[in-house]
Amino acid sequence: MTQVSTDGRRSTLVAVAGGNFAQFGVRLLLGAVVPLVLSTFGTTKSSVGLALTGMWAVYALFQFPSGIFADRYGERPLLLVGLFGTVVGAVLVAVAPSMLLYGVFTVVLGAGTGLFFSPASALVSRLYEEHGGALGMVTASGAIAGIVYPVGGSYIAARFGWRVAVGAGAVVALPALLATLGLVSSLPPANPTRSLRAAVDLRRVRDLLARPSVTYTTAVAVMTGFTFQAISSFFPTFLVEFRGVAPSLAGVGFGAVFGLSSVAQPVAGRVSDRISRDFAIGSSVTLTGLALTVLLFVPGDLGLVAGTALLGVGVSWPGTLQARFMDQFADAERGYGFGLARTIYMFVGASGSVVVGTLAEQSGWTVGYGAVVGVLSVALLLLASNRVLGLDL
């Protein structure tokens, strides 16, 4: 653990959590206003799903280079550039005059926000020995954003339009940028002598990804990432079209999911520190699959409320998964290793938006979200195999 005063560690953690709140919330806000975007541009769910997949895919691609640059130049500069890119990207999306440019500008937003999280996770991991609890606090701030942005954004969008709502998301990112500038500790780079050419050496990349525990964790992360994309992009639309919920209340339901998740994530992180990472992840996966099943097949208010509540508690794996990755890497390779793994699992998982959007459009929501339940079942089987077969991955 890097030696920094207790107050310095706490202020850094608070500022990093605030930055994660801002950059994550803007992306969630786009999912909350999808029904209005569909109406504005007269487009299809598959088209919007493709735009959102592009945003999340570019976000994923930037995880690796941001981790490399964080190792060499320090985490703080990357956090600042990432938050600045969040502001610029959100403003561009808000003023997009066509569906084509909407898609282009969501990619710009993905690039800006993609510079933030890997350096943020590496910095917090350098400051705190208990990775699960500390990273759980960071990811919980994203879950809190999932309350504030969809609920507030839906209200603003209903009264003033989705463009104003997205613009408001850009405004919220400005205080996070200033807090990062003033509060985040500027630590010496973890690996200032690293050659950038050596960092992208294909043999080194292959060797790192070939570690059995890294391969296993990445596979689980791909499946949970796919699930998260399907939920964050289309859950409000699902509530409107399949459950018959009013658009404004769908935003509230979306916010409720992330509100519960904000409580569940730190708990899951502590459970993973004290029992095991896989136990915490497996519990989350099980609850999420059960939640989607209830939402699809249990009618009435009971199914709606119970399914939404279970989903909020279930989507609590992010901090635990990230802690599991951090367990695999030494301090000097955490930015590099985590950035590489995160790029891969988020890039592949980003397909959740376009796959589920297309399935829902062509075959209905039972098939769309039923496919997600199937993916979660495979993830649970993989987790169980590691435990039952004693693979120690």
Overview of this protein structure:
The chain has 19 helices and no strands. With 393 residues, it is mainly α. The chain has a single domain, classed as Growth Hormone, Chain: A, CATH 1.20.1250.20. Helix 5 runs antiparallel to helix 6 and helix 14 runs antiparallel to helix 19. The model has no long low-confidence stretch (mean pLDDT 88).
- Give the overall average pLDDT: 88
Largest sheet: none
| H-E string | HHHHHHHHHHHHHHHHHHH
Spatial shape? globular
Annotation, overall tally of beta strands: 0
Please identify the top-level CATH class. Answer: Mainly Alpha
Range of strand content? under 5%
By DSSP (H or I, 4+ residues per run), the number of helices equals: 19
Low-confidence stretches: none
Radius of gyration: 20 Å
CATH architecture: Up-down Bundle
Indicate the percent of residues in helices.
over 70%
Secondary structure elements and pairings:
Blueprint: H1 6-32, H2 34-41, H3 45-61, H4 63-73, H5 75-94, H6 99-114, H7 117-127, H8 131-160, H9 162-183, H10 196-199, H11 202-209, H12 212-241, H13 247-274, H14 277-297, H15 300-314, H16 318-327, H17 334-349, H18 351-363, H19 365-388
Question: Descriptors for this entry?
Answer:
393 residues, mainly alpha, Growth Hormone, Chain: A, 19 helices, globular
Summarize the structure.
The chain has 393 residues and is mostly helical. Helices cover 84% and strands 0% of the residues. It has 19 helices and no strands.
